[in-house]
Amino acid sequence: MSPALRAGCILPVLLVVPFLLAWAPGCTARYTADWASLDARPLPQWFDDAKIGIFVHWGVFSVPGIGQFSEWFWCWWKIQKRADQVNFMRKNYPPGFEYADFATQFHAEFFNPDVWAELFKASGAKYVVFTSKHHEGFTNWPSADSWNWNSMAVGPHRDLVGELVQAVRKKSLHMGLYHSLYEWFHPLYLADKASGFKTQEFVARKALPELVNLVTAYKPDLIWSDGDWEAPDTYWNSTEFLAWLYNDSPIKDVVVTNDRWGKGCYCKHGGYYNCADRYTPGKLPDHKWEKCQSIDKRSWGYRRNMKLSELMDLPSIVKDMVYVVAMGGNYLLNIGPMSDGMIAPVFEERLRGLGAWLGINGEAIYASKTWRVQTENSTANVWYTAKNNTVYAIILGWPSKQVLQLTVPKMSAATQITLLDYPNVPLKWAPLTPSAGLVIAMPPMPVSPGNAWCLKLEGVV
Protein backbone atom coordinates (compact mmCIF):
# COMPACT_ATOMS: atom_id res chain seq x y z
CA MET A 1 0.00 0.00 0.00
CA SER A 2 1.22 3.50 -0.77
CA PRO A 3 2.61 5.70 2.02
CA ALA A 4 -0.27 8.09 1.37
CA LEU A 5 -2.84 5.40 2.08
CA ARG A 6 -0.92 4.22 5.13
CA ALA A 7 -0.98 7.81 6.40
CA GLY A 8 -4.74 7.89 6.13
CA CYS A 9 -4.94 10.14 3.06
CA ILE A 10 -7.40 9.21 0.33
CA LEU A 11 -5.97 9.65 -3.14
CA PRO A 12 -8.34 10.77 -5.88
CA VAL A 13 -9.59 7.96 -8.12
CA LEU A 14 -7.58 9.44 -10.99
CA LEU A 15 -4.42 8.71 -9.04
CA VAL A 16 -5.32 5.54 -7.18
CA VAL A 17 -6.30 3.50 -10.20
CA PRO A 18 -3.13 3.90 -12.31
CA PHE A 19 -0.89 3.63 -9.27
CA LEU A 20 -2.55 0.43 -8.09
CA LEU A 21 -2.14 -1.00 -11.57
CA ALA A 22 1.57 -0.35 -11.25
CA TRP A 23 1.83 -1.93 -7.81
CA ALA A 24 -0.61 -4.85 -7.98
CA PRO A 25 0.84 -8.32 -7.21
CA GLY A 26 1.29 -10.30 -10.40
CA CYS A 27 0.95 -7.16 -12.50
CA THR A 28 2.68 -7.41 -15.86
CA ALA A 29 3.75 -3.74 -15.84
CA ARG A 30 7.30 -3.32 -17.04
CA TYR A 31 8.40 -0.97 -14.28
CA THR A 32 7.73 -1.28 -10.58
CA ALA A 33 7.55 1.55 -8.06
CA ASP A 34 11.15 1.33 -6.87
CA TRP A 35 14.31 3.08 -7.99
CA ALA A 36 16.10 -0.10 -9.09
CA SER A 37 13.38 -0.71 -11.69
CA LEU A 38 12.73 2.91 -12.67
CA ASP A 39 16.40 3.80 -13.04
CA ALA A 40 16.83 0.90 -15.48
CA ARG A 41 14.43 2.45 -18.00
CA PRO A 42 16.29 3.42 -21.19
CA LEU A 43 16.20 7.13 -21.93
CA PRO A 44 14.14 7.87 -25.06
CA GLN A 45 16.61 8.52 -27.87
CA TRP A 46 15.13 11.85 -28.91
CA PHE A 47 16.52 13.53 -25.81
CA ASP A 48 20.14 12.56 -26.34
CA ASP A 49 19.89 13.52 -30.01
CA ALA A 50 18.32 16.92 -29.27
CA LYS A 51 21.25 18.40 -27.30
CA ILE A 52 19.81 21.95 -27.12
CA GLY A 53 16.73 23.15 -25.25
CA ILE A 54 15.22 26.48 -24.20
CA PHE A 55 14.10 26.95 -20.60
CA VAL A 56 11.39 29.56 -19.93
CA HIS A 57 10.69 30.99 -16.45
CA TRP A 58 7.48 33.01 -16.52
CA GLY A 59 4.80 33.67 -13.94
CA VAL A 60 3.44 36.14 -11.39
CA PHE A 61 7.03 36.71 -10.23
CA SER A 62 7.64 38.38 -13.59
CA VAL A 63 5.50 41.34 -12.50
CA PRO A 64 7.77 42.73 -9.74
CA GLY A 65 10.72 41.40 -11.74
CA ILE A 66 13.56 42.61 -9.53
CA GLY A 67 16.45 41.22 -7.55
CA GLN A 68 18.68 38.20 -7.76
CA PHE A 69 16.64 35.09 -8.57
CA SER A 70 13.57 37.21 -9.22
CA GLU A 71 11.40 34.09 -9.41
CA TRP A 72 11.96 33.77 -5.63
CA PHE A 73 10.59 37.26 -4.94
CA TRP A 74 7.76 36.13 -2.66
CA CYS A 75 10.11 34.02 -0.54
CA TRP A 76 12.74 36.77 -0.31
CA TRP A 77 10.08 39.31 0.69
CA LYS A 78 7.94 37.36 3.16
CA ILE A 79 10.09 34.48 4.44
CA GLN A 80 13.67 35.69 4.19
CA LYS A 81 12.66 39.37 4.60
CA ARG A 82 15.59 40.50 2.48
CA ALA A 83 16.23 44.21 2.51
CA ASP A 84 16.12 44.67 -1.29
CA GLN A 85 12.66 43.18 -1.61
CA VAL A 86 11.26 44.68 1.61
CA ASN A 87 12.46 48.18 0.70
CA PHE A 88 11.23 47.83 -2.88
CA MET A 89 7.72 47.04 -1.66
CA ARG A 90 7.77 49.77 0.98
CA LYS A 91 8.78 52.43 -1.57
CA ASN A 92 6.60 51.38 -4.48
CA TYR A 93 3.42 49.77 -3.14
CA PRO A 94 0.81 50.83 -0.58
CA PRO A 95 0.50 49.21 2.86
CA GLY A 96 -1.52 46.03 2.71
CA PHE A 97 -0.45 45.14 -0.83
CA GLU A 98 0.03 41.37 -0.95
CA TYR A 99 1.89 39.14 -3.37
CA ALA A 100 -1.42 37.77 -4.65
CA ASP A 101 -2.23 41.28 -5.89
CA PHE A 102 0.57 40.95 -8.46
CA ALA A 103 -1.50 38.28 -10.20
CA THR A 104 -4.05 40.87 -11.28
CA GLN A 105 -1.18 42.73 -12.99
CA PHE A 106 0.07 39.66 -14.82
CA HIS A 107 -1.78 40.51 -18.01
CA ALA A 108 0.43 38.79 -20.64
CA GLU A 109 -1.16 41.20 -23.11
CA PHE A 110 1.59 40.80 -25.71
CA PHE A 111 2.03 37.05 -25.31
CA ASN A 112 1.97 35.49 -28.76
CA PRO A 113 2.86 31.81 -28.52
CA ASP A 114 3.57 31.55 -32.24
CA VAL A 115 6.15 34.34 -31.99
CA TRP A 116 7.80 32.58 -29.06
CA ALA A 117 7.83 29.26 -30.90
CA GLU A 118 9.37 30.83 -34.00
CA LEU A 119 12.17 32.27 -31.88
CA PHE A 120 12.80 28.95 -30.14
CA LYS A 121 12.98 27.23 -33.51
CA ALA A 122 15.35 29.91 -34.81
CA SER A 123 17.61 29.37 -31.77
CA GLY A 124 18.44 25.88 -32.96
CA ALA A 125 16.80 24.31 -29.92
CA LYS A 126 15.08 20.96 -30.32
CA TYR A 127 12.99 21.13 -27.15
CA VAL A 128 11.38 23.68 -24.85
CA VAL A 129 10.81 23.47 -21.08
CA PHE A 130 8.15 25.89 -19.80
CA THR A 131 7.22 26.67 -16.20
CA SER A 132 3.76 25.24 -15.62
CA LYS A 133 4.06 26.14 -11.91
CA HIS A 134 6.89 27.58 -9.84
CA HIS A 135 7.28 27.55 -6.05
CA GLU A 136 4.73 30.36 -5.66
CA GLY A 137 2.03 27.87 -6.65
CA PHE A 138 0.47 29.94 -9.45
CA THR A 139 -0.33 27.61 -12.34
CA ASN A 140 0.02 28.76 -15.93
CA TRP A 141 -2.87 26.54 -16.93
CA PRO A 142 -6.46 26.26 -15.60
CA SER A 143 -5.66 23.74 -12.88
CA ALA A 144 -8.77 22.57 -11.05
CA ASP A 145 -6.56 22.02 -8.01
CA SER A 146 -5.38 25.64 -7.90
CA TRP A 147 -8.64 27.49 -7.43
CA ASN A 148 -8.38 31.21 -8.23
CA TRP A 149 -4.58 30.99 -8.38
CA ASN A 150 -4.15 30.10 -12.03
CA SER A 151 -3.78 31.91 -15.33
CA MET A 152 -7.36 31.30 -16.42
CA ALA A 153 -8.98 32.54 -13.21
CA VAL A 154 -6.87 35.66 -12.73
CA GLY A 155 -4.38 37.76 -14.68
CA PRO A 156 -4.11 36.68 -18.33
CA HIS A 157 -7.37 34.67 -18.29
CA ARG A 158 -5.67 32.31 -20.73
CA ASP A 159 -4.33 28.77 -20.77
CA LEU A 160 -0.69 29.77 -21.21
CA VAL A 161 0.58 26.19 -21.12
CA GLY A 162 -1.93 24.96 -23.65
CA GLU A 163 -1.30 27.79 -26.09
CA LEU A 164 2.47 27.37 -25.98
CA VAL A 165 2.30 23.57 -26.25
CA GLN A 166 0.27 23.91 -29.43
CA ALA A 167 2.57 26.55 -30.94
CA VAL A 168 5.80 24.72 -30.10
CA ARG A 169 4.56 21.46 -31.58
CA LYS A 170 3.60 23.24 -34.80
CA LYS A 171 7.34 23.98 -35.12
CA SER A 172 8.14 20.27 -34.66
CA LEU A 173 9.90 20.87 -31.35
CA HIS A 174 9.58 18.67 -28.30
CA MET A 175 7.63 20.23 -25.44
CA GLY A 176 8.56 19.86 -21.78
CA LEU A 177 6.95 21.21 -18.64
CA TYR A 178 8.66 22.39 -15.46
CA HIS A 179 6.64 21.65 -12.33
CA SER A 180 7.48 22.54 -8.74
CA LEU A 181 6.43 19.84 -6.30
CA TYR A 182 6.34 22.11 -3.28
CA GLU A 183 4.73 25.51 -2.69
CA TRP A 184 6.05 28.00 -0.15
CA PHE A 185 2.73 29.05 1.37
CA HIS A 186 0.22 26.31 0.61
CA PRO A 187 -1.49 25.47 3.93
CA LEU A 188 -1.64 21.74 3.19
CA TYR A 189 2.08 21.64 2.46
CA LEU A 190 2.88 23.65 5.56
CA ALA A 191 0.76 21.27 7.64
CA ASP A 192 2.54 18.24 6.20
CA LYS A 193 5.88 19.92 6.86
CA ALA A 194 4.89 20.62 10.46
CA SER A 195 4.10 16.93 10.90
CA GLY A 196 7.63 16.02 9.80
CA PHE A 197 6.12 14.88 6.49
CA LYS A 198 4.28 12.06 8.22
CA THR A 199 1.04 13.23 6.59
CA GLN A 200 0.61 13.66 2.82
CA GLU A 201 -2.46 15.80 2.37
CA PHE A 202 -0.67 18.19 -0.01
CA VAL A 203 0.64 15.32 -2.13
CA ALA A 204 -2.72 13.59 -2.37
CA ARG A 205 -4.84 16.69 -2.92
CA LYS A 206 -2.53 19.04 -4.84
CA ALA A 207 0.88 17.92 -6.13
CA LEU A 208 0.02 14.55 -7.68
CA PRO A 209 -3.39 15.51 -9.10
CA GLU A 210 -1.75 18.46 -10.88
CA LEU A 211 1.04 16.29 -12.28
CA VAL A 212 -1.45 13.76 -13.60
CA ASN A 213 -3.54 16.59 -15.03
CA LEU A 214 -0.51 18.00 -16.88
CA VAL A 215 0.30 14.60 -18.32
CA THR A 216 -3.21 13.76 -19.48
CA ALA A 217 -4.12 17.25 -20.73
CA TYR A 218 -0.91 18.29 -22.49
CA LYS A 219 1.08 15.08 -22.99
CA PRO A 220 4.52 16.66 -22.46
CA ASP A 221 7.60 14.95 -23.86
CA LEU A 222 9.56 15.93 -20.75
CA ILE A 223 8.74 16.55 -17.08
CA TRP A 224 11.26 18.81 -15.34
CA SER A 225 10.55 18.27 -11.65
CA ASP A 226 11.77 20.72 -8.99
CA GLY A 227 11.00 21.88 -5.46
CA ASP A 228 11.73 18.45 -4.03
CA TRP A 229 14.52 19.13 -1.55
CA GLU A 230 12.67 19.51 1.73
CA ALA A 231 10.98 16.11 1.78
CA PRO A 232 12.00 12.56 0.76
CA ASP A 233 10.70 10.86 -2.36
CA THR A 234 8.51 8.63 -0.17
CA TYR A 235 6.58 11.74 0.86
CA TRP A 236 6.09 12.79 -2.75
CA ASN A 237 5.11 9.24 -3.83
CA SER A 238 7.61 9.80 -6.64
CA THR A 239 8.28 6.17 -7.51
CA GLU A 240 4.54 5.42 -7.70
CA PHE A 241 3.99 8.38 -10.01
CA LEU A 242 6.92 7.46 -12.24
CA ALA A 243 5.82 3.81 -12.45
CA TRP A 244 2.44 4.99 -13.71
CA LEU A 245 4.09 7.50 -16.04
CA TYR A 246 6.36 4.86 -17.61
CA ASN A 247 3.78 2.05 -17.73
CA ASP A 248 0.30 3.40 -18.30
CA SER A 249 0.32 7.11 -19.08
CA PRO A 250 -0.42 8.40 -22.61
CA ILE A 251 3.25 9.46 -22.93
CA LYS A 252 4.85 6.32 -21.48
CA ASP A 253 7.07 5.62 -24.50
CA VAL A 254 8.33 9.13 -25.22
CA VAL A 255 8.48 10.95 -21.89
CA VAL A 256 11.79 11.99 -20.36
CA THR A 257 12.19 12.91 -16.70
CA ASN A 258 14.93 14.51 -14.64
CA ASP A 259 16.27 13.63 -11.19
CA ARG A 260 14.52 15.98 -8.74
CA TRP A 261 12.00 13.68 -7.12
CA GLY A 262 12.83 13.98 -3.42
CA LYS A 263 15.51 14.94 -0.96
CA GLY A 264 18.70 13.10 -1.84
CA CYS A 265 17.51 11.95 -5.28
CA TYR A 266 19.26 14.37 -7.59
CA CYS A 267 22.35 13.08 -9.38
CA LYS A 268 21.25 9.63 -8.20
CA HIS A 269 17.76 8.68 -9.40
CA GLY A 270 15.42 9.53 -12.25
CA GLY A 271 15.74 9.74 -16.01
CA TYR A 272 18.63 12.09 -16.74
CA TYR A 273 20.58 14.11 -14.17
CA ASN A 274 20.35 17.87 -13.59
CA CYS A 275 22.11 17.65 -10.24
CA ALA A 276 22.55 21.25 -9.04
CA ASP A 277 21.59 24.28 -11.10
CA ARG A 278 24.29 25.08 -13.65
CA TYR A 279 25.84 21.66 -13.03
CA THR A 280 29.27 21.52 -14.72
CA PRO A 281 31.07 18.22 -14.17
CA GLY A 282 34.85 18.20 -14.15
CA LYS A 283 35.08 14.81 -15.81
CA LEU A 284 32.96 12.76 -18.20
CA PRO A 285 29.80 11.61 -16.35
CA ASP A 286 28.68 8.01 -16.65
CA HIS A 287 25.00 9.00 -16.89
CA LYS A 288 23.09 11.24 -19.28
CA TRP A 289 22.92 14.77 -17.88
CA GLU A 290 21.76 18.29 -18.64
CA LYS A 291 23.08 21.69 -17.70
CA CYS A 292 20.49 24.41 -17.16
CA GLN A 293 22.03 27.84 -17.59
CA SER A 294 20.42 31.26 -17.68
CA ILE A 295 21.48 34.02 -20.05
CA ASP A 296 20.94 36.38 -17.11
CA LYS A 297 23.60 35.08 -14.74
CA ARG A 298 21.76 36.48 -11.71
CA SER A 299 18.25 35.23 -12.29
CA TRP A 300 16.00 32.72 -14.04
CA GLY A 301 12.97 35.01 -14.06
CA TYR A 302 13.02 38.38 -15.81
CA ARG A 303 14.68 41.28 -13.97
CA ARG A 304 13.74 44.81 -14.90
CA ASN A 305 16.99 45.99 -13.30
CA MET A 306 19.35 43.61 -15.12
CA LYS A 307 22.52 45.06 -16.65
CA LEU A 308 24.25 44.09 -19.87
CA SER A 309 27.39 43.14 -17.92
CA GLU A 310 25.33 40.55 -16.02
CA LEU A 311 24.31 38.68 -19.17
CA MET A 312 26.12 35.94 -21.06
CA ASP A 313 27.33 37.12 -24.45
CA LEU A 314 27.13 34.85 -27.50
CA PRO A 315 30.74 33.56 -27.34
CA SER A 316 30.17 32.61 -23.68
CA ILE A 317 26.97 30.76 -24.55
CA VAL A 318 28.60 28.87 -27.43
CA LYS A 319 31.64 27.99 -25.31
CA ASP A 320 29.45 26.72 -22.47
CA MET A 321 27.23 24.74 -24.83
CA VAL A 322 30.20 23.13 -26.61
CA TYR A 323 31.71 22.04 -23.29
CA VAL A 324 28.43 20.47 -22.22
CA VAL A 325 27.87 18.56 -25.47
CA ALA A 326 31.48 17.37 -25.64
CA MET A 327 30.99 16.00 -22.11
CA GLY A 328 27.86 14.11 -23.14
CA GLY A 329 25.27 16.53 -21.77
CA ASN A 330 22.33 18.52 -23.05
CA TYR A 331 22.28 22.31 -22.80
CA LEU A 332 19.10 23.97 -21.50
CA LEU A 333 19.42 27.73 -21.97
CA ASN A 334 17.04 29.89 -19.96
CA ILE A 335 15.25 33.14 -20.66
CA GLY A 336 12.78 35.05 -18.49
CA PRO A 337 10.06 36.83 -20.50
CA MET A 338 8.55 40.10 -19.26
CA SER A 339 5.20 39.96 -17.51
CA ASP A 340 3.47 41.36 -20.61
CA GLY A 341 4.66 38.40 -22.69
CA MET A 342 7.46 40.15 -24.54
CA ILE A 343 10.92 38.58 -24.73
CA ALA A 344 13.62 41.19 -24.19
CA PRO A 345 15.45 42.02 -27.45
CA VAL A 346 18.80 41.16 -25.85
CA PHE A 347 17.54 37.62 -25.16
CA GLU A 348 16.20 37.35 -28.70
CA GLU A 349 19.56 38.49 -30.07
CA ARG A 350 21.39 35.81 -28.08
CA LEU A 351 19.01 33.06 -29.15
CA ARG A 352 19.10 33.98 -32.83
CA GLY A 353 22.89 34.22 -32.67
CA LEU A 354 23.08 30.73 -31.21
CA GLY A 355 20.78 29.49 -33.95
CA ALA A 356 22.93 31.07 -36.65
CA TRP A 357 26.01 29.32 -35.23
CA LEU A 358 24.19 25.99 -35.05
CA GLY A 359 22.93 26.50 -38.59
CA ILE A 360 26.54 26.13 -39.74
CA ASN A 361 27.98 23.86 -37.08
CA GLY A 362 25.01 21.86 -35.86
CA GLU A 363 26.32 18.74 -37.59
CA ALA A 364 28.91 18.52 -34.79
CA ILE A 365 26.27 18.98 -32.09
CA TYR A 366 22.97 17.26 -32.84
CA ALA A 367 22.91 13.47 -32.33
CA SER A 368 26.64 13.56 -31.60
CA LYS A 369 28.41 11.29 -29.12
CA THR A 370 31.36 11.76 -26.85
CA TRP A 371 34.70 10.83 -28.40
CA ARG A 372 37.50 8.86 -26.76
CA VAL A 373 38.98 12.22 -25.68
CA GLN A 374 36.89 15.28 -24.90
CA THR A 375 39.45 18.07 -25.27
CA GLU A 376 43.01 18.89 -26.28
CA ASN A 377 45.70 18.80 -23.61
CA SER A 378 47.65 21.47 -25.47
CA THR A 379 47.14 25.22 -25.33
CA ALA A 380 44.57 24.98 -28.15
CA ASN A 381 41.02 25.44 -26.84
CA VAL A 382 39.49 22.58 -28.77
CA TRP A 383 36.67 20.21 -27.86
CA TYR A 384 35.73 16.99 -29.61
CA THR A 385 32.46 15.29 -30.53
CA ALA A 386 31.88 12.30 -32.78
CA LYS A 387 29.18 10.87 -35.02
CA ASN A 388 29.46 7.51 -36.75
CA ASN A 389 33.04 7.45 -38.10
CA THR A 390 33.51 11.21 -38.12
CA VAL A 391 35.22 13.30 -35.46
CA TYR A 392 34.53 17.00 -34.98
CA ALA A 393 37.05 19.41 -33.47
CA ILE A 394 35.33 22.58 -32.24
CA ILE A 395 37.77 25.47 -31.95
CA LEU A 396 37.05 28.21 -29.42
CA GLY A 397 39.05 31.16 -30.71
CA TRP A 398 40.78 31.36 -34.08
CA PRO A 399 44.47 30.33 -34.11
CA SER A 400 46.64 33.45 -34.25
CA LYS A 401 49.07 32.18 -36.90
CA GLN A 402 46.56 30.44 -39.19
CA VAL A 403 48.04 27.11 -38.11
CA LEU A 404 46.30 24.73 -35.73
CA GLN A 405 47.96 21.80 -34.00
CA LEU A 406 45.83 18.90 -32.80
CA THR A 407 47.76 16.39 -30.72
CA VAL A 408 45.04 13.78 -30.14
CA PRO A 409 43.73 12.52 -33.52
CA LYS A 410 45.57 9.69 -35.25
CA MET A 411 45.62 10.07 -39.00
CA SER A 412 45.26 7.45 -41.74
CA ALA A 413 45.60 7.27 -45.50
CA ALA A 414 41.96 8.31 -45.75
CA THR A 415 42.23 11.40 -43.53
CA GLN A 416 40.42 14.45 -44.87
CA ILE A 417 39.74 17.70 -43.04
CA THR A 418 37.18 20.37 -43.86
CA LEU A 419 35.79 23.41 -42.09
CA LEU A 420 32.02 23.34 -41.71
CA ASP A 421 31.88 26.93 -42.95
CA TYR A 422 33.39 25.65 -46.23
CA PRO A 423 32.39 21.97 -46.30
CA ASN A 424 33.56 21.27 -49.87
CA VAL A 425 37.07 22.68 -49.54
CA PRO A 426 39.57 20.19 -48.04
CA LEU A 427 42.21 21.80 -45.84
CA LYS A 428 45.92 21.09 -46.10
CA TRP A 429 47.44 19.19 -43.19
CA ALA A 430 50.59 17.36 -42.19
CA PRO A 431 51.42 14.84 -39.43
CA LEU A 432 52.50 16.36 -36.13
CA THR A 433 54.35 13.18 -35.12
CA PRO A 434 54.73 9.82 -36.87
CA SER A 435 52.09 8.26 -34.62
CA ALA A 436 49.56 11.00 -33.82
CA GLY A 437 48.60 14.61 -34.25
CA LEU A 438 47.90 16.96 -37.12
CA VAL A 439 49.14 20.37 -38.21
CA ILE A 440 46.40 22.08 -40.15
CA ALA A 441 46.68 25.13 -42.38
CA MET A 442 43.62 27.18 -41.59
CA PRO A 443 42.05 29.36 -44.28
CA PRO A 444 41.48 33.12 -43.92
CA MET A 445 38.17 33.59 -42.11
CA PRO A 446 35.93 36.50 -41.19
CA VAL A 447 35.18 37.12 -37.55
CA SER A 448 32.56 34.79 -36.10
CA PRO A 449 30.07 36.34 -33.64
CA GLY A 450 30.26 33.10 -31.64
CA ASN A 451 34.08 33.02 -31.74
CA ALA A 452 33.95 29.30 -32.52
CA TRP A 453 34.50 27.16 -35.60
CA CYS A 454 34.28 23.47 -36.33
CA LEU A 455 36.60 21.13 -38.20
CA LYS A 456 35.24 17.89 -39.65
CA LEU A 457 37.85 15.15 -39.39
CA GLU A 458 37.24 12.09 -41.54
CA GLY A 459 39.50 9.08 -41.56
CA VAL A 460 40.98 9.69 -38.10
CA VAL A 461 40.84 7.59 -34.94
From TrEMBL:
* Record-annotated site: May be important for catalysis: C292
- Keyword terms: Glycoprotein, Glycosidase, Hydrolase, Lipid metabolism, Lysosome, Signal
Q: Which GO terms describe its cellular component?
A: lysosome
Q: Domain Alpha-L-fucosidase C-terminal spans what residues? A: 374-458
- Biological processes annotated in GO: fucose metabolic process; glycoside catabolic process; lipid metabolic process
Any one GO MF term held by the record is:
alpha-L-fucosidase activity
For the protein in the UniProt heading, the enzyme class is hydrolase
EC number(s) in its UniProt entry?
3.2.1.51
- Record's InterPro entries? FUC_metazoa-typ, Fucosidase_C, GH, Glyco_hydro_29, Glyco_hydro_29_CS, Glyco_hydro_29_N, Glyco_hydro_b
Domain Glycoside hydrolase family 29 N-terminal residues, every copy: 29-363
Q: Where in the cell is it found?
A: Lysosome
Q: Which residues form the signal peptide?
A: 1-29
Q: What function does the entry list?
A: Alpha-L-fucosidase is responsible for hydrolyzing the alpha-1,6-linked fucose joined to the reducing-end N-acetylglucosamine of the carbohydrate moieties of glycoproteins.
What quaternary structure, including any partners, is listed in this protein's UniProt entry?
A: Homotetramer.
Q: What is this protein called?
A: Alpha-L-fucosidase
